[in-house]
Amino acid sequence: NKKILNHRRLISGTEGYFLDDSEIFLITYGFTARTSLFVVNRLRKEGKKVGLLRLKTLWPLPEEAGAEVVKRGKKVMVPETNQRQVVGEVRKLCPGEVIPLNQTDGEVIRPETIMDELKKIWWGKFEARNSKYETISNAQILNVRNKEKLKKFEFWKFEFVSDFDIRISDF
């Protein structure tokens, strides 16, 4: 154990994508890293400042690389297909907000799932109200994946500028 920890730099490894200017980071590993990289590339095309740190080894955890990344980012999301074991280790390194995204149903975390969680981070919590004092929250919008289903809110005008930008206005 001591021998491994003394050679941590030689053993542990990471790959970084878009780490220099990112405001939000995904820290992930294994097959979830492929999905996360897809999401990061897509968001970069939309101008979002999101980066990815892929952990090649879990133990020993590459603390120096992880600590450097989390110092730069305002928020860190850790998508993983287990019971949040890695998010606990990341929290030890991160002075900022660490958002877990775990899934334990044996399925791959879909890009849409990661995107929905990132939308919540970017949008925060909001509620919009029209002239009839009818309201809708971002949680209600995010729970509707099909844009056609949003038409049931007849009194709203939704403009889908991108996957992350929705303008809501009164008719």
Describe this structure in words.
This protein is an alpha/beta fold and 171 residues long. It is built from seven helices and nine strands, in the order ααββαβαβαβαββαββ. The strands form three sheets. Strands 1-3-2-4-5 form a five-stranded mixed beta sheet, with helices on both faces. Helix 3 crosses helix 6 (111-123). The chain is globular, with a radius of gyration of 19 Å. The mean pLDDT is 76.
Outline of this structure?
The protein has 171 residues and is an alpha/beta fold. It is 35% helix and 26% strand. Helix 3 packs across helix 6.
For the biggest sheet, the summary is: 5 strands, mixed
Largest sheet strand order: 1-3-2-4-5
- Mean pLDDT equals 76
**Distance between the amino and carboxyl termini:** 65 Å
Write out key terms for the chains shown.
171 residues, alpha/beta, five-stranded mixed β-sheet, two-stranded antiparallel ribbon, 7 helices, 9 strands, 26% strand
Describe the secondary-structure layout.
Blueprint: H1 2-6, H2 8-11, E1 14-17, E2 24-29, H3 32-45, E3 50-55, H4 63-72, E4 75-80, H5 85-93, E5 97-102, H6 111-123, E6 127-129, E7 135-137, H7 138-142, E8 156-160, E9 166-170
Parallel strand pairs: 2-3, 2-4, 4-5
Antiparallel strand pairs: 1-3, 6-7, 8-9
Helix pairs in contact: 3-6
